């Protein structure tokens, strides 16, 4: 029962919220509104997907918000070479942070929460240094095109499918779950545990950087001091609410997407009914508690 | 005093979705009796224990305890009534000190604070009576499993138990510790504490227990004095089929002849500070070499070192005449070695994954097409091995964590056998699995050796070791102290060498 609730509860909650809004919220089902909701949640989805992979290995990545900031800071520096080199450099920056995270976890043996906390602090610092601490307007039309709703939503959707396929159909994906489920057993079975861990943190860094680029394009400005703040919490929330246990060994991709959608709908609903943001935060907290409680009940 | 038993179970039934786990089970346990509870895994022993300790509630039937009908809703109620349980896996807190574990929840206090000096002093004294001499301020996990078990026992006794349920208490103990445990059990029995003793080790039961109850498929199939039933009959009652033959293990008794040629596995000069000292031995094709020794003698460490799971300071490994360039689990697997680890839960199965995924775990890198997992090829392999090893699971999709110990062990064997290994290292392959699965695993080891594999067998079950192995290499304190081959291999020779070697 608890297992079913953990697994499918998020979909039921999303359905309930949609139904509520369809009846009680004016103009909710209009395409423009739905599109707005999806665009707003897309960066969270991207970051949460990476986070879900890391959590699947029994880890956690607190540095994702700072990676978004770093990506945002790097993009304008290389726009002179064209939009794709700039995006590539931003992604490379994210991958580098992921590499550092992964190495500290897999090679040095630091606890993920400590290792990535270091990068949470350092990452944004580096971003501010790179950007000289200033907000930069983006005028490059090609980059701004990446911020169009259709592009942002499609990217998140495609990435979700890619992550799902990678997780369920590739050797790497199955090994990732095995490492998270029982590291000692995976090691004895000859799995390349260190490489799997490093690749996972790099993937997470890449996805966070991609989210940073898209968010920058949508914002039409590079703002490393504010972009991605508290993103790690939103991402972890989406993952946990989506039914992925923090104890590793299981990853729910669709659940994670639904988790992000649930949190997004919740905030939108409360705002549309003129409840203050503080109320929204408390409701979110309640949902997280419920999700964690259900997960706890299942760990015999 | 025998007129009213301490515990009286009448017609207890317990249903789980789809399964009738206990069916009309009755059992009497007078004060001071040591009562053996036996049965294959899945026979309902664990369920019965859980009903008695308040983890589950019986659907039907009555339980009378200490002269009154009881209905425990929670483990705490059973504990307060004086029912203590010692589980197979030690149920204590690894990171807390030994003394704190012993006194958890009933610490001696002084001015409202825990009186640490007194607690530590009393803990040392208590444990010394159980033959455990350790620094009680150290975390529990720094102790060996045997010593941890003693702490669990001391704790259970200390909380004024009237009924002690022991579930496989000796499975991780050394012979010396087993003796201490037996001494304690007998002493408790004289103090009119009743003991329900669950074990797969029949020898122990005969030495210790007064009565026996045999469960099979959730029913009581036999109950009576242990002295009135011989070992073979007891086993046949547990299995529900008549056994022939003389031995209890399923190994064939004619020794296998090792195949000619160079040794398939050669370990030389394996050295690891404080653990292994210059260990060398070799195994030929078609040969089963037993690694004997007491707990802590370095048997498991030797196996782990050979497959690269334990880094060594010095030493080299040859497989099929070729020296491994470096010792790592990946290199060992590539060279054709496979190891079944001792601790199935912690190092073997991945409980949340399916039977299928657990089986193909090690073989996965070779089962893909263009980087994508090939479900079809996996299914073929999984199907073959589930049939060949007779793995009982509702489907390949079932979570491994839900299977019985014996079936989990078979899944692990399948994981290695599907790699087609040349060398198989088995660390306690039959520990904690039911008699039926045990016989099947033993027969399989036999079959594999006959097919030309080189097998290293580690077992603290002496009978299994001497009947299963063609040659036994004996270890003591991390060093080889002797070797027995051919007709020399028997229990007396092994014990003699361990005592004097």
TrEMBL record, chain A:
Keyword terms, alphabetized: Cell membrane, Membrane, Transmembrane, Transmembrane helix
InterPro entries the record matches: ABC_transp_permease (IPR001851)
Pfam families named in the record: BPD_transp_2
Membrane topology: Multi-pass membrane protein
Subcellular location, record wording: Cell membrane
Annotated Gene Ontology cellular component terms: plasma membrane
Transmembrane parts of this sequence: 6-24, 36-56, 86-107, 113-131, 143-167, 196-221, 233-266, 278-295
Gene Ontology MF annotations: transmembrane transporter activity
Gene name linked to the record: rbsC_3
Protein's UniProt name: Sugar ABC transporter permease
Organism: Rhizocola hellebori
């Amino acid at each position: 029962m608890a297992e079913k609730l953990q697994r499918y509860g998020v979909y039921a909650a999303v359905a309930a919220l949609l139904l509520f809004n369809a009846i009680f919220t004016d103009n909710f089902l209009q395409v423009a509104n739905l599109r707005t909701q999806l665009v707003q949640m897309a960066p969270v989805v991207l970051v949460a997907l990476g986070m879900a992979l890391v959590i699947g290995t029994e880890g956690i990545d607190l540095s994702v918000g700072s990676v978004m900031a770093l990506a945002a800071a790097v993009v304008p520096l290389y726009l002179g070479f064209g939009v794709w080199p700039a995006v590539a450099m931003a992604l490379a920056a994210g991958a580098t942070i992921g590499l550092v995270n992964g190495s500290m976890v897999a090679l040095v043996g630091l606890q993920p929460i400590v290792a990535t906390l270091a990068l949470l602090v350092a990452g944004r610092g580096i971003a501010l240094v790179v950007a000289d601490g200033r907000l930069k307007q983006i005028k490059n039309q090609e980059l701004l095109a990446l911020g169009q709703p259709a592009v942002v939503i499609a990217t998140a959707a495609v990435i979700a499918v890619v992550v799902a396929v990678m997780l369920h159909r590739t050797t790497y994906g199955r090994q990732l779950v095995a490492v998270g489920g029982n590291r000692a057993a995976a090691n004895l079975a000859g799995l390349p545990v260190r490489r799997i861990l490093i690749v996972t943190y790099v993937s997470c860094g890449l996805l966070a950087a991609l989210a940073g680029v898209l968010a920058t394009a949508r914002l039409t400005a590079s703002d490393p001091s504010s972009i991605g703040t508290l993103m790690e919490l939103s991402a972890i929330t989406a993952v946990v609410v989506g039914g992925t246990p923090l104890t590793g060994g299981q990853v729910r991709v669709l659940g994670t997407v639904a988790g992000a959608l649930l949190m997004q709908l919740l905030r939108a609903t409360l705002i549309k009914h003129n409840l203050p943001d503080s109320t929204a935060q408390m409701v979110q907290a309640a949902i997280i508690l419920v999700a964690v409680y259900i997960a706890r009940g299942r760990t015999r | 005093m025998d007129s009213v038993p301490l515990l009286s179970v009448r017609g207890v039934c317990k249903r789980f979705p789809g399964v009738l786990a206990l069916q009309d089970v009755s059992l009497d346990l007078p004060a001071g009796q040591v009562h053996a509870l036996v049965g294959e895994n899945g026979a309902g022993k664990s369920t019965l224990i859980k009903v008695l300790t308040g983890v589950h509630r019986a659907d039907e039937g009555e339980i009378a305890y200490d002269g009154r009908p009881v209905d425990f809703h929670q483990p705490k109620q059973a504990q307060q009534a004086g029912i203590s349980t010692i589980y197979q896996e030690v149920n204590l807190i690894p990171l807390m000190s030994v003394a704190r574990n012993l006194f958890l929840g009933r610490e001696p206090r002084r001015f409202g604070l825990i009186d640490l000096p007194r607690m530590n002093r009393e803990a040392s004294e208590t444990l010394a009576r159980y033959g455990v001499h350790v620094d009680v301020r150290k975390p529990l996990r720094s102790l060996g499993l045997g010593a941890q078990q003693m702490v669990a026992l001391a704790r259970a006794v200390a909380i004024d138990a009237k009924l002690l349920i022991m579930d496989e208490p000796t499975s991780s103990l050394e012979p010396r510790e087993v003796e201490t445990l037996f001494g304690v059990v007998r002493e408790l029995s004289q103090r009119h504490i009743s003991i329900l003793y669950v074990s797969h080790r029949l020898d122990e039961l005969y030495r210790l227990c007064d009565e026996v109850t045999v469960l099979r498929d959730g029913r009581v199939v036999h109950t009576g004095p242990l002295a009135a039933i011989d070992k073979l009959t007891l086993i046949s009652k547990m299995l529900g089929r008549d056994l022939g033959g003389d031995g209890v293990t399923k190994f064939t008794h004619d020794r296998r002849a090792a195949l000619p040629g160079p040794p398939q596995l050669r370990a030389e000069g394996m050295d690891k500070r404080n653990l292994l000292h210059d260990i060398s031995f070799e195994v030929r094709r078609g040969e089963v070499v037993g690694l004997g020794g007491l707990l802590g003698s370095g048997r498991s460490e030797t196996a782990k070192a050979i497959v690269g799971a334990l880094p060594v300071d010095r030493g080299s490994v040859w497989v099929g005449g070729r020296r491994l360039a470096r010792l790592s689990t990946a290199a060992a697997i590539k060279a054709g070695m496979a190891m079944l680890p001792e601790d199935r839960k912690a190092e073997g199965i991945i409980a949340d994954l399916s039977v299928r995924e657990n089986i193909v775990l090690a073989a996965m890198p070779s089962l893909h097409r263009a980087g994508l997992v090939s479900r079809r090829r996996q299914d073929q392999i999984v199907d073959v091995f589930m049939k060949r090893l007779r793995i009982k699971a509702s489907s390949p999709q079932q979570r491994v964590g839900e299977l019985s110990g014996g079936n989990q062990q078979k899944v692990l064997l399948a994981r290695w056998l599907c790699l087609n290994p040349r060398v198989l290292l088995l660390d306690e392959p039959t520990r904690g699995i039911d008699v039926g699965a045990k016989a099947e695993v033993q027969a399989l080891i036999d079959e594999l050796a006959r097919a030309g594999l080189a097998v290293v067998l580690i077992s603290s079950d002496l009978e299994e070791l001497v009947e299963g192995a063609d040659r036994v290499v004996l270890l003591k304190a991390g060093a080889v102290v002797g070797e027995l081959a051919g007709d020399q291999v028997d229990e007396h020779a092994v014990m003699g060498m361990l005592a004097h070697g």
